[in-house]
Write a sequence for this structure.
């Protein structure tokens, strides 16, 4: 029973929240110990009813729309990255460019992820934020995630993809959702070797060892993933083309040590390291205009900077020629990215299974770009080279404390401090013919952030209610920027802070069916570069996020439906204005605008028998902008957002698993693309995998991706023309996994 004082406190909190026009929230979690596992729609595996919930389900999260990818799913599908693992999930949009290289800070030329149409996605590794509050690697989308820098899937026990707000512990800035990565822990002595070979010189090697000896357990692994230039299907001629300069070579190491002092105290040390070398093509040539480009450039008449093609209508065949000239100078261009993360976690008490701990961490990401620029009159000759160096670092401390007050009440609280630093020297230039070196833009930023939260998870018969409060403090930015023309910009800013509230609830209709809903306030401070180029005083993002959904299982069928709405009173919008120094040129400005993001999702699963299962899902997201709040008459980046990605995603998976053999066919249908930017308005992509257990220690596998050799893209860049960022054509990989 809940005490009278506690009931009064609870009702006071609920009354305060209800007075602010909230939406009652219910989580998809069963309030009893039995629970329906989430359906991994990416892997299309029907998840069966189990007795144990995940740690977050039990103590932190009050349900919501959650998909779980297990280590078994990862092993069967042989995913090469977290992005590869989550891309089939409904509501999750992974936009990729087909290569590993990227330009730091430019979302156009790197992989990015959104959930329910929102790029504000938080990534956690074992509960630790992988983000930098001083700057973002994809700042034009205000995205805190670094999908390119995550650990490889072979070190992951499970991935929980949480769509929409579902706990105050995750933060007031994770409006799209959370990708919660739980790493493996050594539980028994075992070693494994995985070797795979495939298309375009693909090679993948992984060796790992885990074990436990008395109070010490460990998990250590090394992996290499490399590939030569890939092939894709050209949109104009439907021919296989080589995506020149798209190869890569990547190394990963993972170390995790756990020492149990006693049943209540333990110490954990984890280190992850990733080193990626990627050749940088920027985009694929447009073969429909390649001959014209070659002739124009060789004649000396063509200059892609001022030839006027950008003034043509997009319906004119020559329009694409202006936007696809980058290929002429990309030979030998490359980027390097090195990610090195450390953390030490001390669990000082287990309270009825709740970990009370303190963690110290240091996350560091370094980036380097080397890009060749030829002469336009003779692109076989080098005109100059461009270089960029970047380092972002986040270090800090996490504190978590939870207590099971009684069988129906769990109190959970936490405090986080992060010191984030960012330094960059972008687009420096070197002219080999003269030996002249010109500096680029030099930036340096530092910011401290504090966050504290408290939530109370209470069960009233079939209803679970979790009200919570969170205090967000983003300290003053300290720093500066010096442009290539020596223009100095002061990045020192004021601090931002706010107390936010949330309410998360779940109602168990019966043991197999749940209704969930949630409401939470949104708060997110702008980065220093946004503030520096603001047209006026830039306020923090504020708004409200709502979620409503259902999940259930009846017989052999499983069902799910959800709706999310995020209403931003203030978000960040970009627009162009004439430059103060040259009216013919335009510069980007940032201002606050109002915006709504809506999404819907449905899924259905059916288990035919012990061997066969299938799953279907649909998701859709749309952004609405209050254009009256944008002072520019021209289209902003946000206005184009609904045109520059797919708007609908359908997924179907069929799986067969019996004895020593399992196989599955996964289909993704993307629709609603704008054919001004994409090769087509819809794409159907099929992937197939199969595994055969030769004996208890040796398993053989084969993967075939893009089975029908579809010509498709998942990302578009308006100024680069149609089909500029094609995805891989048909490719395969075969391999062996040996455990010993």
């Amino acid at each position: 029973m809940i005490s009278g004082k506690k009931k009064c406190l609870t009702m006071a909190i609920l009354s305060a929240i209800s007075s602010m026009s909230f939406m009652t929230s219910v989580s998809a979690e069963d309030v009893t110990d039995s629970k329906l596992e989430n359906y991994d729609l990416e892997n299309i595996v029907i998840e069966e009813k189990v007795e144990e919930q995940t740690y977050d389900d039990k103590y932190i999260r009050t349900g919501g729309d959650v998909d779980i990818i297990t280590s078994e799913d990862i092993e069967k599908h042989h995913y090469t990255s977290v992005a590869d693992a989550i891309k089939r999930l409904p509501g999750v949009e992974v936009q990729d460019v087909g290569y590993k290289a990227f330009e730091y800070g430019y979302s156009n030329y790197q992989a990015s992820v959104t959930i329910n149409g929102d790029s504000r996605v938080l990534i956690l590794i074992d509960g630790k934020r992988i983000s930098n509050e001083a700057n973002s690697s994809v700042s034009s989308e205000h995205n805190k995630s670094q999908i390119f820098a995550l650990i490889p899937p072979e070190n992951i026990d499970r991935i929980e993809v949480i769509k929409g707000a579902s706990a105050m512990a995750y933060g007031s800035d994770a409006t799209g959702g959370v990708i919660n990565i739980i790493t493996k822990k050594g539980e028994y002595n075992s070693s494994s070797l995985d070797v795979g070979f495939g298309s375009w010189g693909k090679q993948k090697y992984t060796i790992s060892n885990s074990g436990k000896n008395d109070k010490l357990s460990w998990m250590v692994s090394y992996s290499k993933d490399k590939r030569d230039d890939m092939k894709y299907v050209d949109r104009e001629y439907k021919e296989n083309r080589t995506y020149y300069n798209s190869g890569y070579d990547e190394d990963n190491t993972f170390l995790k040590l756990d020492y149990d002092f006693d049943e209540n105290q333990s110490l954990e040390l984890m280190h992850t390291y990733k080193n990626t070398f990627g050749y940088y093509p920027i985009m694929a040539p447009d073969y429909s205009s390649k001959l014209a480009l070659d002739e124009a450039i060789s004649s000396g008449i063509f200059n892609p900077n001022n030839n006027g093609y950008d003034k043509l209508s997009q319906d004119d065949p020559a329009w694409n020629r202006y936007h696809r000239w980058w290929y002429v100078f990309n030979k030998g261009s490359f980027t390097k990215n090195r990610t090195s993360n450390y953390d030490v976690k001390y669990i000082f008490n287990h309270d009825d299974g709740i970990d009370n701990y303190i963690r110290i961490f240091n996350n560091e990401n370094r980036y380097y770009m080397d890009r060749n620029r030829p002469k336009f009159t003779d692109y076989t000759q080098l005109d100059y080279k461009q270089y960029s160096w970047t380092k972002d670092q986040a270090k800090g401390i996490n504190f978590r404390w939870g207590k099971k007050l009684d069988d129906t009440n769990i109190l959970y609280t936490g405090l986080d401090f992060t010191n984030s630093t960012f330094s960059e020297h972008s687009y420096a230039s070197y002219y080999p013919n003269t030996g002249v070196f010109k500096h680029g833009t030099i930036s340096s930023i530092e910011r401290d952030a504090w966050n504290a939260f408290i939530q109370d998870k209470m069960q009233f018969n079939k209803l679970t209610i979790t009200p919570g409060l969170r205090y967000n403090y983003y300290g003053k930015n300290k720093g500066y920027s010096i442009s290539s023309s020596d223009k100095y910009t002061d990045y020192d800013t004021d601090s931002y802070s706010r107390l936010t509230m949330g309410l998360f609830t779940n109602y168990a209709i019966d043991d197999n069916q749940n209704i969930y809903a949630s409401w939470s306030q949104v708060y997110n401070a702008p980065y220093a570069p946004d503030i520096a180029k603001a047209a006026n005083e830039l306020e923090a993002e504020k708004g409200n996020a709502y979620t409503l959904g259902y999940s259930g299982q009846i017989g052999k069928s499983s069902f799910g439906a959800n709706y999310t709405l995020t209403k931003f009173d203030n978000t960040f919008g970009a627009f162009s204005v004439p430059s103060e120094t040259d009216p013919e040129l335009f510069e980007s400005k940032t201002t606050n605008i109002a915006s709504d993001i809506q999404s819907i999702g449905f899924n259905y699963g059916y288990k035919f028998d012990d061997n066969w299962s299938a799953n279907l899902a649909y998701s859709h997201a749309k952004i609405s902008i209050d254009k009256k709040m944008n002072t520019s008459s021209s289209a902003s980046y946000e206005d184009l957002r609904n045109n520059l990605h797919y708007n609908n995603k359908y997924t179907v998976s069929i799986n067969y698993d019996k004895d020593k053999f399992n196989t599955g066919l996964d289909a993704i249908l993307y629709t609603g693309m704008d054919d001004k930017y994409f090769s087509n308005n819809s794409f159907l992509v099929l992937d197939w995998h199969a595994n055969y257990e030769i004996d208890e220690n040796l398993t053989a596998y084969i993967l075939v991706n893009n089975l029908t050799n579809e010509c498709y893209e998942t990302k578009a860049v308006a100024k680069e023309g149609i089909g500029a960022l094609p995805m891989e054509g048909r490719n395969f990989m075969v391999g062996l996994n040996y455990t010993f």
